[in-house]
Design goal:
Length: 159
């Protein structure tokens, strides 16, 4: 009887410790959903300005930014943190993509994004759309990047 009691208490203690363990890669507040729809789309509100979800503005043209200007996409809330991009449009083509926000909660996030963001930028410029490949090792950031990029493209009235 004494062995069974000791075994039971040890098992319960081990399970409590196991389930309360928090890894260093867990975001603030523990685990959350992989990708949640986030924010409102960046939309062109006045001729000459495009306003993103964070209230930032960029130069645009009266019919959207399809002929020229900058548009900030919506904030994509990902498991590791927010991702947001801003596109620069000239002549109906994307000429630049800038990451406004990327997850940076720990050193590993920064390492991943230092590698992934330039690759995602190059792919977006080459594809001229949000149909870009996921960067290996940065799946969540890639998904958020695509989501924010697509909202910026939609707000700029590009194809």
């Amino acid at each position: 009887m004494r062995r069974i009691t000791l075994w039971l208490l040890s098992t319960v203690a081990a399970l409590v410790l196991l389930f309360s363990y928090r890894t260093s890669t867990m975001g603030p507040g523990g685990a959350s959903s992989a990708v949640a729809g986030g924010g409102s789309d960046g939309v062109v509100t006045n001729p000459g300005t495009a306003t993103g979800a964070d209230g930032s503005t960029g130069a645009g043209s009266s019919g959207g930014a399809s002929s020229g200007g900058t548009v900030t996409g919506s904030v994509a809330q990902t498991r590791w943190g927010p991702v947001q991009v801003r596109i620069t449009v000239s002549g109906g083509k994307i000429t630049d993509v800038t990451a406004v926000q990327v997850p940076d909660g720990n050193r590993r996030d920064q390492e991943i994004n230092d590698f992934a963001v330039p690759v995602l930028r190059q792919e977006a410029l080459a594809a001229q759309s949000a149909r870009i490949d996921t960067v290996s090792g940065a799946t969540v950031t890639s998904d958020g990047y695509r989501e924010s990029l697509q909202s910026a493209i939609d707000a700029a009235h590009l194809k």
